Amino acid sequence: MHSYSQMFLSPYGYTTDLPAEYPEMFRAMEIAVNALTSTYGTPYTYGNTAVTIYIASGDTTDHYYESEGVVHSYTIELRDSGTYGFQLPPDQIVPTATETWNGLKAMINAI
């Protein structure tokens, strides 16, 4: 998990090519984001890192996917979308944790 940008990111980061299991990754991210967003209405984008945000060589999602065989390897960029940046107000910490947990539970159940 990381902050901030409100995104679920999957492999690959180093290329715009999609992994063989990308349809499964996309399905899981979509379920997670739908559950997360339905909690408080916080919008998230999702997709592979290179297309959704930018080319990023050496990220852990690629390492775990390629070297360790972990299909469900994601980076979650938490709140917010730029207003507060890395200084999220204290009153948003618990809601961020709650919506993220709801998304993770839905994704785990779907997997």
Automatic annotation (TrEMBL):
Active site: 77 (proton donor/acceptor)
Tree of life domain: Eukaryota
Pfam families per the UniProt record, alphabetical: Peptidase_M14 (PF00246)
SUPFAM superfamilies per UniProt: Zn-dependent exopeptidases (SSF53187)
Sequence ranges assigned to domain Peptidase M14 in this UniProt record: 1-111
Cofactor: Zn(2+)
PANTHER family: FI01817P-RELATED (PTHR11705:SF91), PROTEASE FAMILY M14 CARBOXYPEPTIDASE A,B (PTHR11705)
Family to which the UniProt record says this protein belongs: Belongs to the peptidase M14 family.
Protein name, entry field: Peptidase M14 domain-containing protein
Organism: Daphnia magna
